[in-house]
Amino acid sequence: MISGPVIIILLTVLLVCLVFGVPIAFSLGLAGAATIVAASGIPFLIQVPLTLQRTLADPVMLAVPMYILMGEILYRGKVGQQLFEVANVWVGRMRGGTGVSAVSAFTFFAAIVGSSMASVLTIGRIALPEMEKAGYSKRLSYGLSAVGGSLGILIPPSIPLIIYASLASVSPAQLFIAGLLPGILIAALLAAWAMFAAPPTRDMNTAAWSARKALRTTWRALPDLSLPVIVLGGIYTGIYTPTEAAGIGVILSLLLTVVLRRSLSLKDLPGVLIVATRHSASLLAIVAGALILGSALTLIGLPQFLAKTVMEAGVEPWVVLLIMMVTWTILGFFLEVISIILITVPVFVPIAVALGFDPLWFGILMVLNMELAVITPPLGMNLFALKAILPDEKIEVIIRATLPSLAIVLTVLVLVWIFPDIALILTRF
User: Does position 207 have pLDDT exceeding 60, yes or no?
Assistant: First the structure.
């Protein structure tokens, strides 16, 4: 039952932990445990390990470590180079061709892995030097890379969408389908921006275009291009689940990089596994901490209380949705994406459903807001990924250069809000 002292304990423990630099996973877990003890006593803590076991053993959640492993294999195996070369050989000679090639490579790579940082680090390392050679401004090249990388959390398979599907009890396959058109729309706007803002000269003006060379390059990269088709095609046609698709993706990634391309050696695999395990453990620790907090919120009835209060207050649904999105934006300044999803979904989804919003559409709106979070300071992860690629560039320069690109994500966010069918139309087939 909601009570003032219990809410005060929750907020106090959480804020104290964050102020003193306690890792977010432990901050969430300690705040949740303190709330449970305050509301129901120490014996009720026995429910915590049961909740963790039930959720972390969910087949949908089990896909997350495998997608992380697949992304690390492809990153270390230099698959991004093949994707960029294919795009560049077809559109590189047009105005803005190098930028369009980068956007195409970002989009394809997003359809293989579900991480925005992995996309920036993989494709950005290749595309940024090429755009610099073509005379692109920092605002254009950094903006294309920051927003292009953010497609990794919208275009399926997406780790945030997988976690949302588990928490909101919706079909991950349907959610993946819902994210497809909004992601393509962002990519199309990025490509149009590249063609409009690029220097008025051909990016590639040396050798004449050759259909034979283009086809040969495409044929050479066919295994790389077929990876998202196999992974996503099987999900959309119902041949296998998103979790099974993740396992298949890992196997195909190993075959591609170790056996076919030989861009990754067997002696590299232990290092790949170690890095992927660290990332998975870090992410799942945050999940565990947020689950404890979520259990505490459910125990004290906060989501139900808020949903009932909103319904009885007679507030317009669009006003409530706007408040939610402002909350996501503010949290995006201080927390990373997974933490925001895990904290807000258990509270916001019951309210959204009570107001009549489609949970699939609501999930896509949430992830579009998360795209803003990864490219806005002070904790925009894509900004730090760009800094890792450009160690000699000041972070303030990167931030100023990427801020105009927010307009593209905001445009798509507004369009999906006004026209829900952009996200939902493909889910009806």
Answer: no
